[in-house]
Structure formats: C-alpha cells, structure tokens
Protein 1
Amino acid sequence: MSDLNTFGKFETAWCPGCGDFGILEALKDALVKLNLEPHKIVLVSGIGQAAKLPHYLYGNVFNGLHGRAIPAATGIKMANNKLAVLVTSGDGDIYGEGGNHLIHAIRRNINITVIVHNNQVYALTKGQASPTSDLGYVTKVQPQGVIDEPIHPLTMAIALGAGFAARGFAGDKEHLSLMIQEGVKHQGLAIIDVLQWCVTFNKKNNFAWYKKRVYKLGPEYDSCDKTKALEKSMEWGDRIPLGIIYKNGRSSFEESYGLPKDKALVDEEIEPGKVSLALKEFL
Amino acid sequence: MNVDITIKIAGEAGQGLQTMGQLLAKAFSRAGWCVFANQVLQSRIRGGHNWFQIRIADSPVTAHSDATDILIALDDESAYHTGELSESSITVLDSSLITYNPERGLILDIPFEKTAKESGGNKLMGNAVALGAVLGILEYDINILFGLLREGFQDKNPEVVQANIQAVQAGYNLACRKIKGNKFSPLNRTNGAAKMLINASEAIALGALAAGCKFISAYPMSPSTGIMTYLASKAKEFNLIVEQSEDEIASINMALGASYAGVRAMTATSGGGFALMVEGLSLSAMTETPVVIVDAQRPGPATGLPTRTAQEDLEYVIYSGGGEFPRAVVAPLSIEDAFYLTFKAFNLADKYQIPVIILSDQLLADSYVTVDSFDVESLKIERHILSDEQLKDIKDYKRYRITESGISPRALPGNPYGLVVADSDEHDEEGHITEDVDWTRPEMVKKRNRKTAGLLKEMSAPIRYGPAEAKNILIGWGSSYGALKEAVDILNLEKEKVSLAHFNQVWPLNKEYFGFLDTAEFVCVAENNFRGQFAHLITAQTGKVIPNRINKFNGLAFTAQEIVEEYKKLKCAF
C-alpha cells in the first residue's frame, strides 16, 4: 500500500504559488488512490517548468526532449504494458512543439495518460504566447497582441476520435485527482487539459480569472454523446466546464495490435533460432 | 570465372521489371549460381526509364558490370543501353512495340503479347514470354522457373499460373529456334546447392531479429523502407512491434522509449529523415539509452535523388547532434556483412549505452546477392542489463554512476529495487536534473566520453585484399567493396601490384589501423561522394593527407572498370 509519503517531498524550481504545486499534489493523491507504487509508474515529460514535475516525486522518469514526451511514452508503454505511463508537460510542449505527436497518439490510442499543464503562456522562456494564449494577449514577442486563433485542445482531441478527454483545474486538487484516476483507469489514451495559472508571466489568466469561470459538470451531463461533447468542449469565456467532457470505449492500441495482456514485450522470450527458419525462405 | 553473364531488363516503371528480375535472379540462385542483381530506377510509380540488371557467375560476384550480354528491351528508351552491348550481345525485343534498332549484336525479335495469347494466355503475360526467351538463349533448365511461378503465385488461380507457364515455354521454344550457336555456353547444369538470394534491407532486418530486436518505429523513406517492410512481415512470428510513426522525430523518440523500458529497439531512414532524428540522437547519448539507427544513404542534399546511391552521409552521421558524445558507425561492405554488422550494432549499443548508426545505402538496399547462409548459431546476444538478483544486492542504485569505463550500471524501470530516472538535461548520478557546474557537469562529460576508449578497441581493422607486399594501396569503405575488390583483381592481372584496405567500421576510427600508410608508395581513396569524406577522416586521425581520390557522385555505384580507369589516370599523373 502506498500513501502520500511514498512519493516523497522534494525541493522544486517552481515559483512560489505556482499552479504546478496543485497538479503535483493531485497527481500524488491519484497515484495513492490507484494504489500505484513508485516503481510501477513512469513519468514522462518534455521541457518546460511543467516538465520538471517528474523530478519532484518518487517514480521512474523519462524526462526527454521538448515536445517529444508522447512518442517516448508510447515506446515505453509498447515495450512494457505493465507500467503505468503518465505524461506531464506543458501547453507549449504538448500542443506546440509536440502537436503532431498528440494528433497521431490520439489516433493510435495507446494506453497512456497525458496531463497537460495549460497556463496559456511560455513561462520558462519568460512569457511568450503559447498555442492556447487568448486572442489579443500581449507579450514582448507579440506586442500587438496574439493574432492566431488559440488551439482548443479538447475539441481537437474529440474530433480526432479521442477515447477520453477531460479538463481539470490546478486549484481544485480533489477534482483533478479524480480526473487523473479516471484517465489512468481508461484503456487507451486519456488527455487531461489542466487549467493552471502562472504567477509570474500570465497576469491576465490568473487564479481569480479561472476561479470565477470554472464549473464542474454535473451527473446530468452525458459524456458519451460525441456531438454534445464537441459543443461542450468549445465552451470558453465566461464559463469553462471541468470534468470528463468525452469518453468512449474504442479499442486501445494494445487491443487492436493484439498484444498479450498478461505479458510485457520486454518479458518475451528471444528466439534467435527462429531466424534460421526465416533464412530458408530466401532459397 | 568461366561464366559471367549480365542480363538487363529495361523499360518503364509499371512494366513489371522488378517481378521479372527477381524471378530470373532466383531461377539462377536456386541452381547454385552466384548472382548479383540490382535495380536502377527513377522516383516515380509509372513511366520513366528503369532497369533491373542481373549478373550471373560461377563464383561470387558483388558488383554489377558495365557490359550487357542479354538485353530485354521493353521500351524505346532501352536504346540508352546500346553502348553496353558487344557484337555477341543479344537484344530481346518485340519489334511491334520497339521502334529503335540496337545496331549492335544480335536481335531476337519475339512478339511478346501475340505469343502469350497464342500460347493460351493474355497479353499481360508478354513478360513471361520474354523470360522464357532469355532462358531459351541460355538453354537453362526451365523447370526451375516453373517451380518459382507455382510458389510465387500459389494464391492465384491455378489456370493463371498454368497460362504463365505456357507463355514461358512458348518464349523458350522461340528463342531456341531462332538463336542457334550464340556465344553463351549453355547453362544446362547446376552450380552447387541452392543459394539464398537476399538484399541488404532483408539482411539488416534479419540481423536485427537475430539480435533479439523487438521494436522498430520508422517513417517510410527510400531506400530504407524495405527494412520495416520485412520486419512487418515477421512481426507476429517474432513478437515484435513495428510502428509506422508520424514522422522521424517520433520514430527515434519511440525507439528510445522502448529501449529505456528494456527492449532492443531500432529505427531506419535516409539522410532527410536522419536530420529529424538528430536531436533524438543526442538524447540517446545524454540518457545513455541504446538505439540502432539505419541511415540508408541516397544522394543529397535535401531530397536529392531518392532512388539512387551515395556515400555522402559519413561526416554527417559522425558529427551531428548538439554537444559532444560517443557513438559508433558501421558501414556494411556487402549484403552479408550487413547481417553481421547489424547484430554487432545491437551488442555495441547495449554494451556502451550509445547510439549506433548503420550506414547503408541504396546500392546495398536494392541489390540482391547470393549468399550460402548466415551463421546464426555463433552469434551471442550481450545485453549488459542488471537482473533483479543483482539489483537486490546494490544498496544505493544509481543509473549514472561515475565509472572508470564510462559505462554505468543499467537497470530497467519496473524493478522493485531501484528507480530508473533518465533526463535530457544534465543530471546527477541518480539521473535528476542538476546545474552543478563545479563537479557533476564536468564529471558527467568525462564519463560519457570515456566510453570512446573502449569503443575504439571494438572496431575491427580494415579488410585487406590483394598482394600483401603491394606498395600501391586503394582505400575504400562501405558498399563499394565489391567494385573495388574486382578492380584490384583486374589491376593485378595487368601486372599492377595493388592491394585494397577496406573499412566497414568507420567510427570511432582507430589510427593504429593506418600503419600501412607508412610504407605505401601510392595511395588512393575511392568514395561515392564529391568531397572525399573518408579521406578527411584519415587526415584527421593520422595527420596524413591523401591527395589521390576517386569520387563518383552522379547517383550510381562504382563499377570495377571505372575504378581501374580512374586509378590508371591518377597513377600516370603521380
């Protein structure tokens, strides 16, 4: 049995009051409730302040390249499906630099959980626009304000056929923990867009801005209705919904590819002798 | 060599040259003849002028020849090959389809489509008539081809197979009747036991399977795609994952993820795709995660000539990637070598926890050669991974422990005794991000780069061929071995005493292997590139400048005859 102490306490490189702390606490809580131990998980990240999260709790870690957490996580899960593989990276990493990988990972539907710390800004590089920055958002690089339409990650995910698309809020740890637990339990790729304030660079979308707008989807909401989910995913502005926006039961990569459930690829026997038989086909 | 015949099938893409060529090549390899076959093609699905050339001999051949003995001309552009014909060559054509006149050698005019129809088939079986005609000219055992047709088309309607067989027979009969007393000695015998006919994509894939590779992620790119294709055909049988990734960046990052989790993993691409992999290459180095990358070279820069050959990526694969780190580069000198070097690449990658690059090229990838067999039994997989039993006894496991060899103990994630933390950032011995520039950073740089000393000892000496006392030395690397070796034979027959030093393990390059330069009088480096990249490496390692160069960079491979001519010119001017 694991508890919160199992995952340790570390000094971080985050700003005091950063939304990342809430995500870290929610993640630890979810792992405890899922009864996962540090050696059974792999935390995969790219680059950015969010991507440092794997260093702040006990677990196996693959902190790879900027934008490339998803393909690395895909390879890890394919090689060892007994490990719980969670990606934790930022909006710039997953939606910007790694956008192509997200698109195809959703299509592929490998059984990983992608937690996106979405603070609508590039913080580590000191405050440029991110793919989710609001229109008109002013930065030193976008002095006239952002003119590109922001990415709507959950709308995109649902349109691509995602099996699980949810939104959490770094300021509601209990709810976010629940989203992560559901995401990990889901068989297939789960994407969780986590709204997160940036105390240093995003003066617009701050804690109060989010707090005023977010609301939780109630039991009356049917997360299996794709058309309604698309509509709900587009709700942004005065009110922003939190919860599982959409889920379905489509087959995971593992099921479609026919990987054995009870045996990891890394544990499969290696039979070089079989090569001798293959050689005969060339005669 | 008593038998040395080159058959060329020339025509447009989409006319079935490859199917015809492969059938014909296999018809000879199956009776024990030595075959070297390759395809020269344009990057298009239909049209253009392509050819499939097959050289048949009674002893091993490893390169194509400039001369053509039998030409199957399927289009007017086959006139391109007229210069390769001799007075005794035979051009097989259908004068109702071809308007040019070869004006050299003999012409065997056979109405392919008409004969196919008369023999009970349809006009699509004209190619079968042409194949039959070639075998007729050589008086070759036609039953071997019948057997191949039955095996190859066993899923098809038996009537179609039978009609093809009849078309082959009709072509055979016509050729026997029309060409009497041609110069070719009848090949109505076998040349020993059946041989394997295989290309380098297949050989690399088989090498990977023999090494226990369980994972390939790749993005299709000529001329590397054949590796993934063959592995996909064996994925079920060998329990391996073959994933066509969204781009080459994903390819290498997926492979690294899989390797981190403990399976042997690889990717394959060509120059352009390798560019996208370069950051991943340095990730492999930084996280010390083994990976095998095949760069099947094509001429560049950029998209270059997708379906032609070159040795232009040598310096690129050696120097690419941010930062300084060790890597190994092997360059197979033959298709057989590609099998063994691939196996070695996986062992090296695991032992040193580094990226290993296999530098193949279009010549190897698209050539078929006969091989007796591969010695699978003698190969030994060496993983260098800590078992749970070993880990249990390690009190304080550190994935990146500083060691004298530079190699740290490797555990896999999932074990209950030590967490495995990998980071693309500079990291401490546990793998966690650090900015300690006083001790950790310099010690980690030294640790990683210390692996080179061990690696240097792993790289084999060059293959030496020709008279040991020769003071004239040709130097080559990689796929040009066949042509260079044959050039050495020709030159020595002409009383020019010359030997070959040929490298198939090109990085890191051990300067001790260049002792022969001290006593040589005339040295010449032959490479399929413009700038003489291997010659640069030799200078960088030994301080010796080799001004005599043979460089070919039009996208085609060397022939022995070309090497001989260029060698003589350089020697004359020396």
Protein 2
Amino acid sequence: MTASSSSVVSARKLGLTFETNDGPVHALSDVDLEVRKGDFVSFIGPSGCGKTTFLRVIADLEKATAGEISVNGMTPEEARKSRSYGYVFQAPALYPWRTIEKNIALPLEIMGHSAEERRRRIERTLDLVNLTGFGKKYPWQLSGGMQQRASIARALAFDADLLLMDEPFGALDEIVRDHLNAQLLKLWARTEKTICFVTHSIPEAVYLSTKIVVMSPRPGRVTDVIESTLPAERPLEIRETPEFLEIAHRVREGLRAGHSYEE
Amino acid sequence: MKHPSSYRGRLLPVLTILVAIVSIWYVAAVFMNAPFQRDLDRRGNVTRTTAEFVSATFSQPKPVLPAPHQVAQNVYENTFLRRVTSNRSLVYHSWVTLSSTIVGFTLGTLLGILIAVGIVHVKALDRSLMPWIIASQTVPILAIAPMVVVVLAAINVTGLLPKALISTYLSFFPVAVGMVKGLRSPEPIQLDLMRTYNASRAQTFWKLRVPASIPFLFTSMKVAIAASLVGAIVGELPTGAVAGIGSKLLAGSYYSQTIDIWAALIAGSVLAAILVTIVGVAGRIVERSMGGRPA
C-alpha cells in the first residue's frame, strides 16, 4: 500500500459488483480516492450511484470485489476490528429500550470500558451534540433531530478518528437540517475528526465539505472531485456568497456530466 | 386517550354480549330440558301452568342444559362454602390443575426459548427443526395424551409430571415460533451497528436480540399459558385422575352431573382468564421498565 501516512482512506481501482437474479449490478467501478486526515469529504450523487455502498465498503459492511482499499493503513476488516470508525446511519437506530445515555454507552459496554469511564464519556459526548440533560430520556421522548444527534454522540463516544455518516440528516426538515449542519461543522472543528459524509443535497455538501466527491450511477463511479475553497469558518450566510454558488454550480455540472439528470 | 371513556367503551360491548349469552342460555335451557320435564310430569300426572313448567325446567337435578343460576350456585357453593382440602371444592381441583399448568408452562416456555435460540443461530436447525415443530402441533393432543401418561407410568413416572409434560407439549410451540420472530426482529441497521462495533455474537444476542424479542415473548406466553391449561385438563382425562378440573369433568359426565360439569368448565375459564391476565400485566410491567411508550 503506497498511501501516505496522513491518508485515512485510500481506494485504488475499487469495484463492487452485486450478483443478482437479473444479472450483475455494478455498484462501484474504478473508484480512486484519497481521504486525508482531518478532511470533511462529502459524497454526492443520485440514488444508485454507489455513495452509500462506498461508505459501507470503508466500514467493512460490504466487501469490494475488485481493486484495493485501505482504512488507516489497514484492510477495512482490520480497521473495523480495531474500531477505527464511528458510523452514523440514515436512521438514528437508537435501541428503544435504552435511554439516550444507555444508547451512548452501548459501544462502550461492548468495548469493555469501565462504568466510571462510560459516565465520563457520555457526559462529554452529550455536551458535544448539545444534548446535556437529555441522557435519562428514552428515544421516543426526543424529536427526530435530537435522536439523530444522539446517534452522532454514540458514534463519537469511543473516540474513533474517522466518522462515517450516511445521509444522517436526510429524513429531517430543512430548518432542523441547517441547524445540525452548523453544529456538525463546529463539532468537526472541535474534535478534528476525519468525516466521510453521504448526502444528496448540493447545498449541504458544499456547506460542509473540504472535498466533494461527485458520483454517478450505472456503473457507480466518481465523475469529479472538487476541493472546496471556502474558509474553515463558515456561517450559514456563506451559502449566499458567489464563491459558494460557484462551487455548487460545479457540483451540479458534475452531476449533469454523469447523466444523472436524465431520469 | 381519555381513560374513563375507553373503560366504558370496553366494558359496554362485553356486558352486552354477556347479557345476550345469558338470555340465549335461559331460552335454550327451557327447550333442552322440556322433553324430560314433560315426561316426568306425564308419569307423575302433574299439570302445570306455563310459568310453573318453565321454572321446573330451571331446577332439575340433572338437566340436559343447566340454567345459568344453577351453575352459578354450584360454583359459589363449591368455591366458597367448602373446605379447600375437600374433594368437592373447586378451589382444590383448580389448584391441582393449576400446579401442573404452571410446571408445564415453565418447561414449555424454557423449551420454546431454547429451540428459538437454536433456530436463529444454527442454519441447519432452522431447516431441519421447524417442519417438525409445526408437524408436532398437527397431531391431536387427545391421541397423544393417554400414550404419554401410559408410557411414563410404565417407567414409574406418575402424578404431576405426565400432565405437566402434555402442557409443555402444547405450550412450547407458540413460544418457539414467537421467539424466532422476536429474535429476528432487529432491523438490518441495528445489526449493522453491532457489526461496526465488532461486537461478538454473544454481545449481539444479549444486547440486541434478547431485548428486541421481549414483546414477542410475552405475546406468545399469553397463548402458551392458555394452551398449558388445556394440556393439563386434557392430561387429567385419561389418567383416571382423582383430582383436577379434568377429573371433575370426567366424573361429572360419568354420573350425568351436568351442573358439576358446567361448574368445572366455569372454574377452568376463570383460571384461564386469571392466568392470561397475570402474564399480560407482567408483560406490561416489563415493557414499561424497558422504556415502552405508555399506551
């Protein structure tokens, strides 16, 4: 593996083909990508472009069928076994029989942290996602946005440097989403994590990312990689600046080049 | 959501049906008992008014169909007016049946859970065991029960255990089926989450599959406890058992003590209702303690 030391995810000619009854489906083909430490990388594209699949390959929830990929210099399986990443799913996936703090404690219990350590980390991560005081509530007592923040806290609790987020705010309304995006950026700045973020919202991708990976379907592939020129400090109003619109335009062009508007 | 109205909303329909049943029962009692009463009157050379005749059909000692109040009186006398140890006490007979129901239900639930855990974790068991489990319930229990009792008696196992085993046979099934469903109820996303933590199979089992299956467990236990009671009663029939609701039913039919039979039936139903309610309440308490949203 030739990945440099600062490379967190490195994919070379990565491919994944699902064998189905209707013949093979090329979910990913020839994906080359480098995610450096501290990057905030967004994957954007229409459904079927393989963005979620790529994230799942990084997480070792799917196995690539071609090419190579390394996560923290290891195979995805080794990376998963050494608990190198936290994963945030589309749905909060909180366990309904556990309170919020017990949900956050779940990975800590599995990884064998002491009760004292668990308490300390629960307190810290609840604070990171602004949910202090909600630890004793059950998931159904919280709004959708708060539940998703709790699931982010759960992914942060065990201090993995890499955060994989699969359309975490996709099910939320735009007002809540704006708010959470701003919070996520602050959290990213505070924790200096590397984040891979799947979305189908152009403004969300441009607002959050240092690097935007534009993908297109059939076969799932990368059509453009855009390095953001926006400053690290990003108030929500930045979305009306020419620079922002310029990048958004380039993303839209990339999507169009991938023929993703055709259906 | 308002409590009083939902209470009334549930009570009223149930009472309506109860009144309907009792009315039909009275009418039926007149017609069913009329031929014998007419026979009796003819031989005794008695002439009665219609009202007298109707009331006579309600007070035969061995009616074809006893009137509700006759059954109620029998139940009352044999429940509250007899010593608990008396052979005529319904409490005594219910207790005998209850004890084997509980033993059978406990064994059946444990067996059902065990089978479900096996089926969920071992693919070979899933393929091989499930058809047999379903087939086991198509065999009529009335045919199996005497054989179980006879075979066990041959190896000197008598008394409570044979009856309990018949309850076990009936009650493991709903628990096994319910728990297979329950242990498989976690969504893919919840299982993926465990995988990202590199959780062991045991951790996934105890921290995800087991808690997710609890509602399914209590639902199936409600069915299982009713089935256990049926099993215990059926188990008492071929044993020539001296005690229990089943033996009471059998003795009643030997001696044409129809009122006793109906009283035993009532005792069985009340017992079933109590048992199902207890399991239901236990289920609600457990679910509440697991953060269930109050209904």
Protein 3
Amino acid sequence: MSKRIEVNDLNVYYGKFKAVEDVTLTIEPRSVTAFIGPSGCGKSTFIRTLNRMHEVIPGAYVEGEVLVDGNNLYGPGVDPVLVRRQVGMVFQRPNPFPTMSIRDNVLAGVTLNNRRISKSDADDLVEKSLQGANLWNEVKDRLDRPGSGLSGGQQQRLCIARAIAVEPEVILMDEPCSALDPISTLAIEDLIEELKQDYTIVIVTHNMQQASRVSDKTAFFNIAGTGMPGKLIEYDDTSVIFSNPSVKATEDYVSGKFG
Amino acid sequence: MTATTPRPASAEALPAKPAIRLGDLLFSRAALWSGGLILVILAAVAIFLVAQSIPALTADPADFVGQPASFLDYVWPLVFGTLWSAALALVMALPLAIGIALFISHYAPRKLAQALGYLVDLLAAVPSVVYGLWGIGVLAPAIQPVYSWLVDNAGWFPLFAGPVSGTGRTILTAGIVLGVMILPVMTAICREVFLQTPVLHEEAALALGATRWEMIRMAVLPFGRPGIISGAMLGLGRALGETMAVAMVLSPQAIVSFALLQSANPSTIAANIALSFPEAYGVNVNLLIATGLVLFLITLAVNSIARYVVNRRKDFSGAN
C-alpha cells in the first residue's frame, strides 16, 4: 500500500507571498525521507502540500504538480478530503481528540463519512493499529479512558495509530518528536523503522541526528533571506548528505556552522 | 452561580514572612472583597425572599386574590407557564444560535463574520419592552394565519389543538419573542467557544480526511460542548426571568395547558408579579414574593443541573 511520490516544479504561495519555489523531487515507496533546514525555510509548508493541508490557511495555493503513483493530487476534480485519506499526517504536537476515548481516537478516521464498522471489526482494528504504533501493551486495559490522559510520547504514538488505522499510502510527519523527551523520541524513531516496511514516510525534523538515524534520503531546504522563498538545495541519500554533500550550504548546515 | 471560598493566603502560614508588597496586598484584598460581595448580595436577596414569603405560606388561602385552594394551586400554573415558555424559547433558539455561531466562526468569510457578529451583539442591546411591542404589533398579527393553518391541518396533534387564537397572542408567540431575545447571548457564547477550538484538533480531523462538517462534529462541537451548555443556561435563565415581553404578549389565565395556539394561555411567574403587583395588598404582596422565591429556586436548580452536566465528563473536556 505504499506509493511513490513525484513532485514537479512545485511553487507554494500564501496569497502573494511565495513561500516555496521550484521543488522537484521523487520519494521512493517504503522509504523514509527526511526534510531538514533552518526555521522558515518552507519544509513544513512543503510537507503540507503533499496532502493539501496547506489549504487550511486562507489564500494558500500551489503551482506545479504532486503525483502519487502517477495521479496528480492537484488535478481538476480531485477532492482534498480523499487526498488526505490516502496521505496521513502526524503533527508536531500530539493532538489526540481530548473528548474521545483512546479507542474512539483510533477509530476517528475510520468512522468518517458514515462508514459503518462492526464492533468486532472495530476491536480488531483498534488492536492492530495500536500494536502497529507500539502502544497496545501500555493502553490495552484503559481503552475507554481519554487519550489526553496519556504521556506526550504515548499521545504521539496514539496519533500515529490513528493515522495508520485508515491505511494510508503515505504518512507525513511534521517534526513528530520536537515536543517529546529523548526516551519517547527513541520509541517513535524505532516505530518509524518498523512502519517503513509498509508505508512511504516523509519526516520533517530539526534534529540532524534524527534525520541521519531514521532516513534513507534527505532533502536540505534553505532560504536566501527573510521574505524570500524557500528552496530545495540538495536531495540525496542520507549518507551522502551527511558525509559528502555537493553543496557548500548543506555541508555548513549539517556540520553545525549555521542554523 | 459558583461560590468560591477564598483560600487562606499561604504567605501567612509560613514562619518566615516574605516582604509584603503594597500592590499585591491591595489586589488580593480587593479580589477577596469582590468575591465575598457576591455571596453577600445573594444572601441578602435570599433572606428577603424567604422572610417576606413566610406570611403567604402560613396564611389562609382564602385571603388570596381568586381564592385558590392552596399556595401550591396558585403557583403551579405559573411555574408551568414559566418553564413551558422558556423551554419553547430554548428549543427554537439553541439550534439557531449554534448554527449562527458556526457560520460566523467556521464558514463565513472574515469580513462578513465580523459584521454578523456585530449585528448579533446589537440584537442583545434591544430593550425587552421593545421586543414585547414587536411581539404584539408585528409578530402576532403576522403569524396568526400560520396558526390558523396549523390548527386546521394539524389540529390532531395535541400541541396544535384548536380553537385557534384570533389575535395570534399565544404562548408560542411569547416563546418566539423570548427565543429572539435569548438568541444573541447564546450565539455570542457559542461563537467565542467555537473560535477557541485548538487549531491542532481541527487539523487532526482534517488530516484524517474529514470534511468540514465532519471536522466540526469531531473537533469543534465536542470541544465547545461545555460552552454550548453554559450559553443555553444563560439564555434559559433570561427566558425564565423575562417579564415585560411575556406580560405584554399574553393575556394570562391560571391554567396548565400545553396547547400552543389557543387564546387561553398560562402566565409566567415574572409576568404575573409585574402585572399583579400594582394592585396587590396585604398578604397578596407576600404571595407574589413567594412566587418570586419559587422562581429563584427554579433558576438555581437549572444552573446546578447545567453545572452537573458540564462536570460529569470533566476528563474528556479538553481542558487537560
């Protein structure tokens, strides 16, 4: 169920402001791709264009195309709602629905659009998704308690369980560990390794060690100055980016000379 | 109605006193007094009501105007009318208020939303006498043909039983006027709560592939539930206590009837007090005050129930 993503000549605008300019890259199925770069360089904006979440902000639009298995997400008549069911997302801060139990949180996406699911199927799906997110053992005896009662790391894994319960093709993670402690971060990173078997994963991170640990390929974004659009500077295998990058700015960034 | 007892300042418990700053002291004392004042005012009203009610409760019912069999016989139709008209108002106004609030917070373009919000607030500033006049002069004559049609075509339904009122001044008209009156405060509160829905939760729903309506059902409404209930209770409180609009629209009788469209309608406690007080004498004054005590207790009960409902699912409230 994982698919290849091809991005061709993508520009992203917020109203008149061009936030990201001319990005072209290909993301392989069943791989982890990390986006790194300084704050404000457009990596979060760009990852959001992969499931059209940027459209939540009024005035945001893109030029260019994003192909998931050859289908353009921005083609005429494509419903962003359906795009987001194929391309799941995990956010920077854990955001389980506070008014729902753990179980209902996992099922939140599945029961959308009045889709009916029998109780036994739902039970199986909850267990499968929570096990997929390495959370089952910790919560199996309190599934009817609110998700907001879990620790931050558990909440984030609950969000991952919720995302994989709808069986998307791709999972986008926008700095999934930046609000977590090191132990929880490690748990999420292990989980990403496992999820890679089934899903295409794209992760934005500020943590360079994390990028080098979890990703197969790394894209470095940078910005020329305030008010200028962010650009894709270099995109290559993670080992190349971190050991022998071809662009000077990439080398400066990964070696900590700036950013 | 929350009665918060001020906690003893922890500074006093410590053996080594830190330096007391004048500003801190002033503010803490001012806050303490303000908080305490609420209790004092509430107690003063309650004591007045109880003290003045006792003569009516102990008096011979034969002394009351209209010779009811007992105090309860006198007050029950009024209690019924109060609850019935307020419930009608709430049933009509609450869905509308939630709809308007959602439109303003999540559907309308920003400029339109601002203008609409301003208009709704303006609606709250109209005095209730004006609403009463509007009810008599505009709404009742305009809606009377609708009532006639309902009685003719749906008269089998108990609420719409005939004979229809010729003037349109029925409990349903009063309910509609009350509904319009309580709409602004409920809309304003719902709108504020809906706007405070964390973007995180809205995005969580959208990223799962929720449509806008599903996002609202998943993230906005559950988050806003305590606020919706608070707004409804504020509106209900106003509808229960509303005097002029009801007194002007209805020509009251001491009956208990669910029929919405007939010319004989129950009055409400507040309207009855306003209409009867100028001519009341002797123990009848105490009688009216006793009905006021009953209204006070009803409002207290409504608020307590609302608070209980809000607190019951505290774990799931989103505040943690």
Protein 4
Amino acid sequence: MIMKHELKLYCDTTRLADLRKFLNDILQNTSLSDIEQHQVTLAVDEVCANLIIHSHGCNAKEFIKVEVEKENGILKIEIVDRGEGFNIIEYKEPEISHVKATKRKGGLGIILVKRIMDRIEFEKIGTQNTCRLFKILKSK
Amino acid sequence: MLKIETTHDSNFTTLHLIGEVDASNSIELDEQITGLVESGAKKILVDGTKLEYISSAGLGVFMSYIEDFQENEISLVIYGLNERVYQVFRILGLDQLIKIKSDKEEALRV
C-alpha cells in the first residue's frame, strides 16, 4: 500500500512547529518506535530549518514542499524547494570538537540528519532541488 | 512554543525549559543564559522535565558555552530530560561534553 502526504511549508521558522505536527501524525502510524519517530521528525526539521534560513533568508512568501511516502517497508521524505539549493551530500559537516572550540552555533543539524537517516539523496534539476531522506521500517 | 522560567536559589539559578526549542526560538535560550552569566551566576541548572523537543539550534546554544564556562568556572547541569530528548543529545555525543543528570538532587550534587 502506498501512503502519501504533502505539506506546503512557508519559509518562516515559526512554521517548523506545523511541520513537526504534520510528521508526528503520519509517523504515529508506522512501525517506528517513539524514539525513532522523534528522531525522523528532528531530521526533517533540521533540513527544512536549514533551507528556510540559508537558502530562503526566512522569506515567508517562499515555500518548501515536504512529501512523505511509505512504500515497501521504506519511509521516504522528499523535501523540494526552488532556488540555490543545499547539497547535503557534498556538505562536509564540521567535527563536534570544532563546533565546541569555535563556539559556532550551526553545523550540528546536518550531523544529526546523517546519523538518523538510513539513506540520503540530493538532486538538482534546473532550479528545483530535491532532498530525499529514507528510513527503513521494520515489519510490524 | 517555548517558555523559559527562571528561579533563583541562594547558590544556584534554575532555567525551566517548557515546550520546544527549535530554530525559531533558540535565541531566547541563548539570551537567558547570557543574562545569567552577566549577572554573575556560577551554578546554572537547566530543568528539562518539561522540555518536549530540542533541535540542533538549541543544542548549539549549550555547545557554545562549554569552553567559556570551563574557563570561568561556571557550572551548567541539565536534568530531567525525557528519553526522546536525551537520545538527541546522545546522537551527537553531547552527553559526554555537557553534564546531564536524571533529577534535580543529582544535578545539585555536581
């Protein structure tokens, strides 16, 4: 069975709470544990927060499309936006020790995403950027 | 939504985090901690019993104070995190860099 859900997320960080609510409602109906659901929600929040702030400059007129799909035991979250894009695969995340020493408050989010998700893809076609996050679902 | 309440005891100050810390409000947490440091606080407790969510924006705030606090002998201890939130600290190994205790009594013994 294919299950598909879509959210249009406007580029305002106060909307991230709506994104989490959207994801929580969907993930509740998967075989993911409570802790895993929380972490997947966090990973998507991190990618979207990053896009909202760095790619869209918190311009609330712009939006990101978030699509969640469950098929063949795999949860796929597609995050699509238009613009410069952020290639999460090529991005070299900092060392935790470096983050601490330089007192920078960023950089941790992408580390979280990479540690939480099972697979990550990035695709740019023209001005459209797609980041796909995958999590393997255990059979119930 | 994040609400931060502060309570002052004779030798420590507690920040009670209620709700969710994310990219939209982590600055509030940052400002509260900076405010405490400026007022001369030497022991800060962070009550996480009502913290439902924290993203990297909030974790980054705690990270950014670690070195300054070591240099200036300021102690910051987080306590009462629920399992979901605690696991987020663990993914990044922050449980090794930040003092995290299960309850207030343990936090006060640090």
